[in-house]
Design brief:
Elements: E1 3-8, H1 12-22, E2 28-34, H2 37-47, E3 51-54, H3 63-73, E4 78-83, H4 88-97, E5 101-104, H5 109-120, E6 125-126, H6 128-137, H7 149-159, H8 164-171, H9 175-189, H10 194-203
Parallel strand pairs: 1-2, 1-3, 3-4, 4-5, 5-6
Helix pairs in contact: 2-3, 3-4, 7-9, 7-10, 8-9
Length: 210
């Protein structure tokens, strides 16, 4: 099954460019285009894409607000912030809103395609510049609820960039069970995205770096 993608950007030329080169990959299907954050939310509700490419600076509702609403209302859809903005506050707020990735618009086409496929599998996707800012700014919860031993195993592999399928194979459990563990981890850590959970894993020394 191809990865179903919704493009959200208020610039028509950007949407057209993304559609043109993403359409060249047979493993990606563009299911729609939104020109503002509110439309992105409404189309995500209707179309249930696997991944939304979300610009941050858009009218009606900005990309950060739209990301938070998408993640709350359609949790099976992952969001990649795709933007030209690299301010610390934008990176941090996008990840806190639940984006699984943060990429810049100068990302190479092949790298973006791989990031989309990886995000659909639940893998964290950050530009090196965004990762550096996040490690400085995102704070782990002070006293998270204790994780079980299996949840720690899942968190460690998640932070190593493993997909749900890879985690399932490595731990000899079902993919649905992995998703349940991830959901429990996010709840216990009181965070809204796998990216924040991965950053927590770095902070407590489960892994060395993202």
């Amino acid at each position: 099954m191809p990865v179903r993608v919704l493009i959200a950007d208020d610039h028509g030329v950007v949407r057209q460019g993304l559609r043109m080169f993403l359409a060249l990959d047979p493993d990606i299907e563009i299911v729609g285009e939104a020109s503002d954050g509110l439309q992105a939310l409404e189309m995500t509700r209707d179309l249930r894409p696997d991944v939304v490419l979300m610009d941050l600076l858009m009218p009606e509702m900005d990309g950060i607000q739209a990301t938070a609403r998408v993640r709350a209302e359609v949790p099976d859809t992952e969001v990649i912030a795709l933007t030209s903005v690299l301010e610390d506050s934008s990176v941090v707020n996008a990840i806190r809103a639940g984006a699984i990735g943060y990429l810049l618009k100068d990302t190479e086409a092949d790298a973006l395609v791989q990031a989309i496929k990886a995000a659909s599998e639940g893998q964290v996707q950050l530009s090196p510049q965004a990762a550096a800012r996040l490690m400085r700014e995102v704070r782990a919860p002070n006293s998270p609820e204790e994780l079980t031993e299996r949840e720690v195993d899942v968190l460690r592999l998640l932070a190593q960039g493993k997909s749900n399928k890879e985690i399932a194979l490595l731990l000899s459990i079902g993919e649905k069970t992995v998703k349940t563990h991830v959901s429990n981890i996010l709840s216990k850590l009181n965070v809204s995205s796998r990216t924040q959970a991965a950053l927590y894993a770095v902070r407590i020394g489960l892994v060395e770096s993202l």
